[in-house]
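Many introductory courses stop at the sequence. We go one step further.
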Amino acid sequence: MKYLVIGATGNIGARVVQRLINAGARPSVFVRSTKRAKALFCDQVDIHVGDLENPGPSLGRALVGVDGIFLVTDGLDLEKRDRAVSFAANRAGVRHVVKLSTLDVRTGIGTGPWHARGENAVRESGVAFTFIQAAGFMSNAFGWSESIRREGVLRSSTGGGKIAFIHPDDIAAVATASLTTRDYDGQALVITGPEALSYGEMTDTIGRAIGKPVRFEEITDGQAYARTVEWAGKGAYADALVDIWRAVREGRLDTVTDGVKQITGREPIPFDQWATENTASFQ
């Protein structure tokens, strides 16, 4: 079987590529930078260079002989890229597309509507699909690292609300199983971490991991928006983040499922393990 990973140099895509390599496959990757792909995977992959903003013939060449695709896209207009890939895949005879989506598709919160439109585009293409509807990533906590290092504090508008962040390795494990077994065709797989935790609880966990106190400080939605605009700029992404944090505070994102265990046969990785793995980022 031949697999193509789109978004192969990112957080989840790179993990899926490595899992395929470890299983004895030689996946193809569709990337903007040959240098980055070679740095990650050496000569263990077939590299196709292109850009989904203007895929042209490069995408068609990458799809030749491919059986399955793992697709990672983001941004307000991700539907455009999901549509381009899935329709091209169907024309090329690709049998299956696994799309990394979000649990928020089910609630319409944050980036959920963006991915809902992307899922609809994949469905409309007629290609067989699996959607990975994941909770927020544990690696989102890297965004807290600067304030924790400098001030020993995490400021957030999430209050005491909870969310079951999921380890990137668990997402990659589920995605790889979906891609290689075909056992989940036509399904939307809802996956979360093992327990819903408040940001304060996660702050305490990071503090224990690094061996020093870290405090949680609640801020308002307005303050959270102003701080986000400083690095993300004004627009849909900043709006989506504040919407997500508000939903956490209001208890609308505390879903916990056994999806990871059902698919991988093991319990999902807890947040304290992720924190221990990444202490260097917070010290």
